[in-house]
Amino acid sequence: MAKAMSLLKAYKTNQIPMEGGFIISSFFTGSTIYTIYELTAFKNVKDIFQGPDGLTFKTDGNRCHILVEPPTYSKNYVEPVHREDGASIPYRFDECHYHAGKRQEKIYISKEPHMLYSSFTILNAMGDNYCFIFFPTKDVYMAIRKFMADSLYNDCGLRKEDCRIVTEKFLETLHKFTVWSS
Questions:
Q1: Type and span of the H or E element at 158
Q2: Phi, psi torsion values for 161, nearest 5 degrees
């Protein structure tokens, strides 16, 4: 059975699985639905330490993103990689799957994961943002799908059908992670 918990709680109680796992972070922007989801997978952790910005993992990893843009977003013509700090993801439009929500939302899902070499940092969750770790179990992909669909529905207000489509595309990218193939 899938298991998830707050990343900070897992760190403080020394429960982060050193053999690997998945970390989902959310970054909500003010009073709009402009949201960035970041999923990072890791394996064979050598060390974890807390720095001023968050937890740094000494290991390789893979990362992918979902960006939810409200219909009123005024800079929707700017490539996601070139947007201001806190509103950008490391992808261009043509590197993302695009889904138009029924309520005029624009949702971008990374087509390919990014490789993270030697170390990476998971930023501290502040305000309404959260950061959960999913432990590697047989049904972890099903748990991530349900978690993401629920978050997109409850936190971003997307319609259930849009949530289903977006999470399916997201899982396609997750299955491309190379960190698990070695």
A1: none
A2: -65, -40
